[in-house]
Amino acid sequence: xxxxxxxxxxxxxxxxxxxxxxxxxxxxxxxxxxxxxxxxxxxxxxxxxxxxxxxxxxxxxxxxxxxxxxxxxxxxxxxxxxxxxxxxxxxxxxxxxxxxxxxxxxxxxxxxxxxxxxxxxxxxxxxxxxxxxxxxxxxxxxxxxxxxxxxxxxxxxxxxxxxxxxxxxxxxxxxxxxxxxxxxxxxxxxxxxxxxxxxxxxxxxxxxxxxxxxxxxxxxxxxxxxxxxxxxxxxxxxxxxxxxxxxxxxxxxxxxxxxxxxxxxxxxxxxxxxxxxxxxxx
Length: 282
Fold this sequence. Notes:
The chain has helices at residues 45-52, 74-83, 100-110, 115-129, 144-156, 174-189, 201-207, 225-229, 232-237, 244-254, 267-275; strands at residues 6-14, 20-29, 34-38, 60-65, 68-69, 84-87, 162-166, 193-198, 210-215, 218-223. The N and C termini lie far apart (53 Å). The longest helix has 16 residues, at 174-189. A hairpin with a 5-residue loop joins strand 1 (6-14) and strand 2 (20-29). Helix 3 crosses helix 4 (115-129) and helix 3 packs parallel to helix 5 (144-156). The protein contains eleven helices and ten strands. The strands form two sheets. The chain has a six-stranded mixed β-sheet, sandwiched between helices. It has a four-stranded antiparallel β-sheet with strand order 2-1-4-5, covered by helices on one side. With 282 residues, the protein is α/β, with parallel strands linked by helices.
């Protein structure tokens, strides 16, 4: 069994205004998984993510990466941030260079990469993401979707092992949101470990392998999507709804119409479940 890639033990963090953002949070993230953290605004999701690559340091508790407690001196953080990349919810908080090419190159050049090698890696990532036509454009002229892609490119060019996306579909229309999540799926298939935060219970239910439900700085539930989203009281406390796929299956089961033991995780499985229903003899 592979060891955890990232582990947080009993994290606590209080902001200067007295807000208790994290209150004894413990999670363990395995290697090459797709995981999601859910919760209402103010639950502590973004604060937790900022602990995972050392942008924040816990007031209590410890973050471990590959079994080693994080060190907060400059050299250790440089190494960590090459391996743990974060795409912020608002890409304007991440993009600051004059052009797209300069922005994607910034991290590499700041880490001492030679300009020619940095250019090669940026062009490679740009072509993979289909944004090479944006290289000469000013970042502030881009759409929200384009900004998210550029922010992701700036992370990917560092070749991280863990990619964290804070509300990856926020501000995107349904089509672009689906494309972005498909892109994250592709990165996972290439061996990357993926961690997202989201308010979208349907997205998390269908996409993630593991789910944590965070509320008021505490972990209220954790496990597989089916396990977590079957806990109605925890969802209600966090002001979240049951995913529609699970809700339909639960109603089918209540009526004795569900032929499958496990709930469907996507539309295809639900459709097959319905096709397998046998009408009662009249």
